[in-house]
Amino acid sequence: MHGATETYRETSRRPSTRETIIIQQVAEGRKNREIANALGTTEHVIKNDLRMIYDKLGFWNRVELALWYEARRHEALPA
Fold it and tell me: How many whole angstroms separate alpha carbon 72 and alpha carbon 63?
């Protein structure tokens, strides 16, 4: 049972496809309104999405989120 719990925790902390798109756009320096326009939604929805992303990943703000994204992106690039 312990293994199943660990798998759930790891999966639940992984950003969804939509969250990844939002994270990428934050890392590119886009404002909430720009992200909302690109995704065809409202700025309010993006703010809520970001709060959920911060909670899921344990961050306080978009700077921490962008730095985390950039670090992970560079780790994924081939040497």
Answer: 14
